Every structure is written in structure tokens, then in C-alpha cells.
Amino acid sequence: MRAFSRRRFLQMAGASAVAAAVPGLTEAEELWSSGSATPTFKLPAGAVDCHMHIYDDRFPSAPGTTLRPPNASIEQYRKVQARLGMQRNVVVTPSTYGTDNRCTLDALKRLGPNARGVAVVDTSVTQAQLAEMHAAGVRAIRFNLSYPGATTVDMLAPLASRIGALGWHIELVVQGAKLPALESHLLALPCPLVIDHIAHVPQPGGMQSDAMRTAQRLVDKGNTWITLSGPYVDSKAGAPAYADVEPVAKAFIDMAPERMLWGTDWPHPTEKAHKPDDATLVDTFATWIDRADWQQMIFVTNPVKLYGF
Fold this sequence. Notes:
Elements: H1 6-12, H2 15-21, H3 27-30, E1 48-52, H4 74-84, E2 88-92, H5 102-111, E3 115-119, H6 127-136, E4 138-144, H7 156-163, E5 169-173, H8 179-187, E6 193-195, H9 210-221, E7 224-228, H10 246-255, E8 260-262, H11 278-289, H12 292-307
Parallel strand pairs: 1-2, 2-3, 3-4, 4-5, 5-6, 6-7, 7-8
EC number: 3.1.1.57
Domain Amidohydrolase-related: 48-309
Organism: Ralstonia pickettii (Burkholderia pickettii)
């Protein structure tokens, strides 16, 4: 039989199964997070992880999706929560499931009142379905416009008008290079907008990019929030400092600390070769935020307001 590397085996199997099948598997690998130490920075009480995913092969992947990580379970995530010192989180439906939100809704039911959700829907969704999701803890809908998929630009305006009465917002993930072309659509939204992953400002030269200027104009409008998450996605400098992403994040923080959020991006689905150290990421973001009053806002006050904890 052809031999497989441990990493390849991890990619092909769910983490819990791998833990039982591979002698010597570390807890960090089992939890899809490098390292085992706690953060140096102590997260304030009530901190909210505003961006994480659950993957569960009980729920089928949508046809045509390319990002299909192994299972990342609630039990594994709870261990990461305990390590980081937090209890609240926002479960985001990943592109893997298209507009099928059953995995997220199941997670919300099991996680209880300390969790909120972000769903993916298209214009066929009914008001009754939206109401059911709201009762389950959903507080936003996500548009992944980086690649062709379940949602399109044409759906932004009609769906934004429908979720307003529920007090929801739109969460956007899009490649930074595509952000300028979307600016007019985003400025016209009647509901709050959250842009994931530090607006995906491309590197190198992020501070001088059209994407950065567009994101700054959106933030300046007063209705746009930025999630401080996934610095590894666009960084060319790499861990642990992400020195190229740092000035971008700090610029957003300085502009509007009252509209900044933070998220782990666990289980880091884009990072296939090596998972980042979640504790180190917490310390990095806390250093970038710098001020104690802003740390309280970004880790606690802002998400409590936006997600209705």
C-alpha cells in the first residue's frame, strides 16, 4: 500500500478519527491549531470570537465547492475556547455548504445562548425562513464574492432590504483587488456591512493599494465594520508578526475602534500546510490594538452591540 504522510492523512480524515488512528498525534494537530500555550494577553470577560466555522460531514458539501476541510467539531472548538479564555462566538457558514445552513444551525443549537450565527442565503429565501434563523441565533448573511458561488452582487440590494427589519447586517468576504468595483454597491447598503479578514488588502504594498483606499472610504462612511482575522491569508511577511499586514490593521483600528471586531478564523481552512497558533494570534491582535479601552471595545463591546449578545 502506498504510504501517506501524516499531513496528507490529516487532510483526508476527520481530526477525531485521526487522533485515534495516528499514534503520537499532538493535541494541537487534533484541534487544528498550532501550539498549546495560553495567550500572554488575557482576553477581557465576555470576549467574542466573531469569525469561526464548524465543518461536519453529516452535512453534504455543495456541488462545485473547492474548499472542503476535514471535520472541525464543536468539541474541538470548545477546547480552543478554553485555551484562549473565551465563551462567546459567532459561527459563520463557510462556502463549503453553499446556502445550506444546517451545519451552522445545528452548531448554534448545541452551543447555546453564547453563540450567534452568520448564514448564507440567496433571494429564494422566505421571510419565514429568515425568522426561523433569527430565532436560532442568526444575525447576519454572508456574501462570498471572491469566487463564483451561491451569492452574487445582484443579490446584495434586495437581500439587504429584507434583513433590515430583523436588525441583521451583511458580512462580505472578497479579494481586495475586487473591492473597488463593488464600492458603489456597498455604499448604497441600507444595513451595516462587515468586511472579513482585514478587508483582504493585498500585499505587498497594501497601504498604497486601491483596495485600502476603498476600504477606508467605506469605514469613513460610518456603516462599515472590519473583522480583524486571518492575517495570514494576505501576508507575504508571514507569522508571527505579519509585519506587512500590521500597518493596514492599525490604520483601520485608528480610524474607527468602535467598529472593529476580532475573530480566530478557526479552523483556519485556507491554511492547509500549517495551522497558525491561535494564542499567538490573540497576542498579535492585542498588540496591534494597543490601548486597553480599545481592546475592551473590540473584543467585547462592539460584537455585543452588533450581534445582540
